[in-house]
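Hi R.,

As promised on Friday, here is the backbone we talked about, encoded as structure tokens. Could you run it through your design pipeline when you get a chance and send me back a sequence?
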């Protein structure tokens, strides 16, 4: 069984590791850019079909996406960007500052 200080040390190390975010690899960046380009092409296609007079339901069926998604894309006026996920609170968070200062 580990001592309490050993566990605290592990927790502090894990907190410090989370604070450092590793740089994205080139392959990850290229994949993100490819997905971004696909979404942009799809959005431009939506706008093109809209100018031709197609209704939202018809466009959604044609492109194989939900009508609600289509409406949201049109309402925002741009392609959607993925947001970073909000970090959930953990049990150690209230004690994090005191642990890191020791």
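Update: got your reply. Pasting your designed sequence below so it's all in one thread:
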């Amino acid at each position: 069984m580990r001592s309490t200080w050993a566990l605290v040390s592990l927790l502090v190390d894990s907190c410090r590791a989370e604070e450092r975010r590793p740089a994205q690899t080139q392959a990850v960046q290229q994949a993100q850019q490819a997905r971004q380009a696909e979404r942009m092409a799809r959005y431009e296609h939506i706008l093109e079909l809209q100018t031709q007079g197609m209704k939202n339901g018809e466009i959604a069926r044609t492109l194989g996406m939900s009508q609600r998604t289509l409406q949201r894309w049109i309402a925002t006026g741009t392609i959607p960007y993925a947001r970073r996920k909000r970090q959930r609170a953990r049990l150690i968070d209230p004690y994090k500052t005191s642990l890191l200062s020791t």
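One thing I noticed while checking it: The two ends are 23 Å apart (CA to CA).

Thanks again,
M.
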